[in-house]
Amino acid sequence: MKPITKAILPVAGLGTRFLPATKAIPKEMLPIIDKPLLQYAVEEAIDIGIKEIIFITSHTKRAIEKHFSANLDLEASLKKNGKEKYLEKINPKKLQDIKFTFIDQHEQKGLGHAVSLAENCLDEDDDAIAILLPDDLFISNTKSCLQVLADTFIKNSCSVVAINEVKEKDLSKYGVINPEEISDGLFKVKEIIEKPSIAEAPSNLAVCGRYILTKSIFNSLKSINPGAGGEYQLTDAIKDLLYSETILATSYEGMKFDCGSKQGFVEATMYLALDDNELKHDLKESIKKIIT
Ligand code: G1P
Fold first, then answer.
1. Cα–Cα distance, 85 to 74 (Å, whole number)
2. Which residues lie below 8 Å from residue 69, measured CB to CB, with a gap of 6+?
3. N- or C-end of the chain: fewer Cβ atoms within 10 A?
4. Within a domain: residue 266?
5. Model pLDDT, residue 71
6. Residue 292 lies in a domain
7. How many domains are there within the chain?
8. What is the CATH number of the domain that holds 161?
9. CA of 259 to the centre of ligand 1 (A)
């Protein structure tokens, strides 16, 4: 299989948990320190060689399109005012040759439906596609989560999803796999269930927001019915794909923050701030004062 060059980022959700902040601003554009949450996932994709980012979005989220386009007025004004050092921030080199595609999801019919809308973006010679759910922010000093998946994909020539252990009480929020261990941290998926009850869950290993799936996933997406929550679930399509293809699941290196929750969002902000040379010294002092 060839390396993957396209990634789907579903970003059409309403961001209800972050209201009122998300009344006028897309949830994915909320900043973790000074960079929108979404840009972390976009950069993670580009760093593994992705050349086209396909956003499944909504007409209410034009700020995302603006963010990933040039802003010539701002560039001119920064240059005029001697603030060239900010040019790289608003027009980073790594984003310059990337194609950004925007597809509107008119109805909220679930993750499976969102992914299915990208089918026409694939060419004959695309073997597989990456899917990143930007709410899950992965931080690693070694390989990124998507890089671990990409390496596993190239080595094994099959679909691969990222997984982590979750607490029993949280299993019903995720897709949960029945694993067959191949080696440390690498599993064959025997079964997968979306949002199972504790009794139904086949393990404590839940899928997190990074996938590399062969393009047969688009056929599987056509065969599914609405599942958990009445929505078309990507997990149900993965379950269908299991009848014809091997799917692997792998753990990843580093940390994951669920930035779809306020808790995770604040934790990610704190973690990155405490890792930031400009901020960490004073911040540690402030935190000491606040908690004493
Ligand atoms: C989605 C998927 C689920 C996966 C989760 C990871 O759920 O449907 O299988 O485990 O993302 O974050 P959602 O968060 O959209 O409910």
1. 13
2. 100
3. C
4. no
5. 87
6. no
7. 1
8. 3.90.550.10
9. 12
